[in-house]
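Open question from group meeting: does this chain pack into something compact, or does most of it stay loose? Before anyone orders reagents, we agreed to write out a predicted structure and look at it together. Recording both the input and the output here so the notebook holds the full record.
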Amino acid sequence: MRILIAEDQKDLNKILLKKLTAEGYSVDNCFNGAEALDFLDMAQYDGVILDIMMPEMDGLEVVKHMRRTGDHTPVLFLTARDSIEDRVTGLDLGANDYLVKPFSFEELMARVRAMTRKTATSNSPVYQLADLTLDTSTHNVSRGGVNIKLSAKEFALLEYMLRNKGKVLSRDNIENNLWNFDYEGGTNAVDVYIRYLRKKIDDGFTQKLIHTVRGVGYVLREE
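Structure tokens returned:
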């Protein structure tokens, strides 16, 4: 999943970027509300983490603009403000959740998982296709009852494909969801990770789940 962080405290911004990336998310980050709107105009995100008190444009104004223009991307507010009035204002403007600083990273991650699940077809943390199962809450993946160890990026790719099972995903779709604007990898990065995933998910099984749609992209489905 792709996440945008807008937080003007540079140390906290850097920590959030590092932590979320380590969890397998594709992350873009910026330091004020105006930059956040620029990022939102250029890419689709599964969730936005917004500080309220930011220069140029605060988080409340960013959310107000998003909702006014029809952007319903889930938003989690981070703020040092802890009054009931501030919480109500943020939620009334269209934020999905609210976390007061200081906070634990474990709680942040739980809230991000809950927030982004609401954009999928199911609120369940478990996705399944045939005998393949992925649990977003525990990061466990298994097929035929056998646990499969995946890297963070492999897990993110499989989760994205399971959330869109049956849909043909272009290389651009996958790349935009799994990598941020700073990515400088090769143009065949998607093909490389699909190959990695096939070895772990399909090798040794008669029924193949990852399929190539020539000239278009890839699809996860039963055949």
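Observations to bring back to the group:
The chain has a mean pLDDT of 87.
The chain is about 40% helix and 20% strand.
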